[in-house]
What we know:
Blueprint: E1 2-6, H1 21-34, E2 38-43, E3 52-55, H2 70-82, E4 89-92, H3 97-101, E5 109-112, H4 123-128, E6 133-136, H5 139-142, E7 150-154, E8 173-179, H6 186-196, E9 200-205, H7 211-218, E10 227-229, H8 235-243, E11 245-250, H9 260-267, E12 272-275, H10 280-283, E13 290-293, H11 296-306, H12 311-321, H13 324-352, H14 355-362, H15 375-378, H16 382-386
Parallel strand pairs: 1-2, 1-4, 2-3, 4-5, 5-6, 6-7, 8-9, 8-11, 9-10, 11-12, 12-13
Helix pairs in contact: 1-13, 6-11
Amino acid sequence: MRIALVAPLAEAVPPKLYGGTERVVSWLAEELVRKGHKITLFASADSETSANFVSCARQSLRLAGIRDHIGSTLAMLREVRRRAAEFDVIHFHIDLLPNALFQDLAHKCLVTLHGRLDLRDAHPLYEAFPEMPLVSISDSQRSPMPKSANWLATIMHGLPAHICPFNSKGGDYLAFLGRISPEKRPDRAIEIAKRSGVRLRIAAKVDNADLEYFKTVIEPMLNDPLIEFIGEINESDKREFLGGACALLFPIDWPEPFGLVMIEAMSAGTPVIAWRNGSVPEVISNGVTGRIVESMDDAVAAIATVSLMSRSSVRAEFEKRFTAERMAESYLTAYRSLLALAPVNARNLASVIPLGVRKRLSAQTFIPAQAFNGASQCRTDAQNILDPV
């Protein structure tokens, strides 16, 4: 298949430091290339990939100090639109904008939603543009969405088995990895460490939006010999950090859409102590890969139980459920389902768009004319599209 992957411009693909969505896009791109598909990645210029690459920003926007990403993202989408006829599938990882801007090409597009969906601010968009096929990263993530949302699949994240290599021994400290913010509850992690007497290492970035929270709430709690604040770490440092922990603390206080750090820890064989919020019950196998808790007392008590868990069993569960290969296969199944429905979707689009508008749109180079024709012209050679080339 000829597949376009459209990444956020906030970070490079993969990120130089912190970044979840861009890391997932990188793993997906590399696995699809390995499987023999023709992949084109739209991302910032500091990205690294085996896929065909289209640079859409001189540098990842966060590191460049650019706060408002809409202008750069719209410029990227113009380039995607100009080249749309080159692809069988266009796979977006930038949430909202494709729904409105690629409505007429919905038969060959899908959007993976990586963020929280319980805030109703964006719901009118999904109600107004129900054509776009959507992918959720957990079942809990999609539950607050309006009934008009056009769900194609739920596909949980996966990562290459070598990214966080298995560590059979672990270590003697608790780990907190990610971002300092109220919903991530690093204050809970610190309190758990102090109550249990077990050392805590915090590897996390502090965004400008969370700087006041860090200064007023978290920084005063760091003055304790049990607590070590490391700051933001890169991919290489993450391997040692997670592998050397006795457990990962995931004390979230929000409906986490997925929680990539949980499966990174599982890859290293490190069990997870996580609050029962969002996707946690879908990711953690309670008693096998960690403990799901609902209170501070539960979390403190869980430290003793996770220390008895088999790290090899934690790793085995990761290999069964959360590899990049499994994720890529799930997306290929979704792509094929999308393409199987494409002729019907194209006919539906043709029926609702006035003939004059269709002719005018079809004349533009960035919209394939076959998108507005009947089923027989939507795909000239289905076998060539569905099979790797």
